[in-house]
Specification:
single chain, mainly beta, 11 strands
Length: 114
């Protein structure tokens, strides 16, 4: 399985970005898809995950601001990020797998700065 993420960039505080991640290869085996992030000097942390049935899980720090969604027909997961804060600056990684995150894409950088 290969994961291709896109949509990162530079945005001002309070702005919005939408990340996308498309899975290819043996994507039919995927149940879980999600986003993790790693800020400079910090460990990678969960942002949000979603199952093929639509069950979602969010980090407390992004609840109410970020929305994860998924198009199973396209094997694509999205992360709509609103009301972005300086502390959301990080490299965002897309993950996917059957029971956990077995596969990872290259990260996409999100920079929140005025």
């Amino acid at each position: 399985v290969q994961l291709q993420a896109s949509g990162g960039g530079l945005v001002q505080p309070g702005g919005s970005l939408r990340l996308s991640c498309a899975a290819s290869g043996r994507a039919s085996s995927i149940n879980h898809m999600g986003w993790y992030r790693q800020a400079p000097g910090k460990q990678r942390e969960l942002v949000a995950t979603i199952t093929s049935g639509g069950t979602t899980n969010y980090a407390d720090s992004v609840k109410g601001r970020f929305t994860i969604s998924r198009d199973n027909a396209k094997n694509t997961v999205y992360l709509q990020m609103n009301s972005l804060k300086l502390e959301d600056t990080a490299v965002y990684y897309c993950g996917a797998g059957r029971w956990g995150m077995d596969y990872w894409g290259k990260g996409t950088l999100v920079t929140v700065s005025s």
